[in-house]
Fold this sequence. Notes:
Layout lengths: L12 E5 L12 E5 L5 E5 L8 E4 L1 H12 L5
Antiparallel strand pairs: 1-2, 2-3, 3-4
Pfam families: DUF397
InterPro entries: DUF397
Protein name: DUF397 domain-containing protein
Amino acid sequence: xxxxxxxxxxxxxxxxxxxxxxxxxxxxxxxxxxxxxxxxxxxxxxxxxxxxxxxxxxxxxxxxxxxxxxxxxx
Length: 74
């Protein structure tokens, strides 16, 4: 099965923090952005603009969020 091609990063918008609290230079955080057709972008802010962006299609995002809620990354 072929993996869907993610949209270009420029297509993502509405970036927001994925956690409560303040983010800043001393407090890195995770950002979530919305892409077309239900894609989501995930970015750790530790490296600033050089931080890589992970891209998830809608099905992958659903599985990822379920794993987070189940504590699989704690």
